[in-house]
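Late entry, written up from scratch paper. The run itself happened at the end of the previous shift, but nothing got recorded in the book at the time, so transcribing now.
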Amino acid sequence: MESTLSQTSTDELVEPSVSGVSWGAVLAGAAASCALTLLLISFGVGMGFSVVSPWGQSGLSDTRFEIGTGLYFIVMAMISSAVGGYLAGRLRSKWTGIRIEEVGFRDTAHGFLAWAVASVLGAILLASPASSLIGAATSGATRATVSSNGGSPVEGYVDELLRSDNPSAQAQSNPSDTRAELVRLFTANFGKGGDLKSSDQNYVAKVVAARTGLSQPDAEKRVTEVVNQVKADLDRARKAAAHIAIWLTLSLFIGAFSAAAAAWEGGGTRDGTWRRKGLRN
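Output as recorded:
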């Protein structure tokens, strides 16, 4: 009985009272993870992950590109998080008098903390290059493009509306005012995910008929086709953005697991206990 109490007292005296977190190792692992993430993002852009054809019949399809980008996110998270977690576990301070189970927990915690710090820093420092890569995955989902002078993205649809089968119909006064009016009308209706109101659609059909020389029924048919195309493209863009967000979330979960597992291996390699059970530090 006395020997047991003496052993317990000895263990309590030997266990250090300092913090169980080696912040230097955590920050070093996080910095390495961020740098490697930036490197892999640049590599992904160079390999063409940021290039999507805006034309529906050329280049990679949206679905194939979306899946490829999502898988690349996962691979990138695994590599960068594993390297950062391993460094955090390998560089952490030596602990003495700690049970091996507690050492394993602290090692995995160091990897998770390195991943967390790297994620926060990455969201701040890597926002611009990451947004370029993510945005590329959804840029091909819509056919409308923003003009170089900062025009509205719906101008491409207005071009379709005002394409004239009778060139003489274009010789009207103030054609730019008509175009600007339709751009504002489309932006107001579709900017918040809505639809073109029936009154606006009738008005647009009249403008198209007067501008292009089409008959009223043909103008109404063209307007209906373009409006349906706008709604379909916007729906595709929303779905693509949602799918990319899911891929990104999955990559974050896998990155956290990879960092924790790599830190456990790094700490065990440092202490010589990797794959060895029942040993004490």
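Confidence is low (pLDDT under 50) at residues 1-13, 51-60, 140-150, 277-281.
(Scratch paper discarded after transcription.)
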